[in-house]
Structure prediction request, 209 residues.
Amino acid sequence: MGHSFGEYAAACIAGVFAPEEGLKLIATWGRLMQTRCETGDMLALPVGETAALELIAPFSEEVFIAAINGPASVVVSGTHRALEELAATLADSDVKAKSLSVSHAFHSAMMEPMLAEFEEIASAITYAEPKIPLCSNVTGRIATEDITTPAYWVRHVRQPARFAASIRTLYDQGLEIFLEIGPKPILLGMGSQCLPNGVGSWLPSLREG
Prediction:
């Protein structure tokens, strides 16, 4: 499995598409986002999905859930104005919001201006069914043949990354060793919070320095 952009790497490893095709999709996402979508912000909130939905309800047209990373870890995306107002509101509460360093509001409705052109490129990609099981961040479940369609990758741009559900799915499959492949461990702490205390081995491939 991957997280957000990381699902492209996971899909390459699983055999859904060749690395060159995955790179084409990622480059297209970046180019279209820069040229078609307004800039935005993202906030990490130490709350669950239900509480996050309640917090962003007053901003429902401008703020969206972008990732569910744990039982008390949600990221929201939206416009600069709305997220500034949300952060100011939360500053007077027990919810400590953390602003993320991003250029755009990933996995939100602010991505919609690029989706039609992205689907055109995604429709020219050659797909194959996964050779090894792959867990989908879009559904939080083991991927089906749906992951071999352009429509899936369009939804992947727009829909929240269901990381917490994906971790639980892997655990339900009997997996208890989790290796994060990347320059430094970022997801391991969040992943371990998705399972009971003491469950699983959480291994980094590299550490900073």
Q: What stands out?
A: The helical segments are 6-14, 19-36, 49-56, 80-91, 115-122, 150-158, 163-172, 188-192.
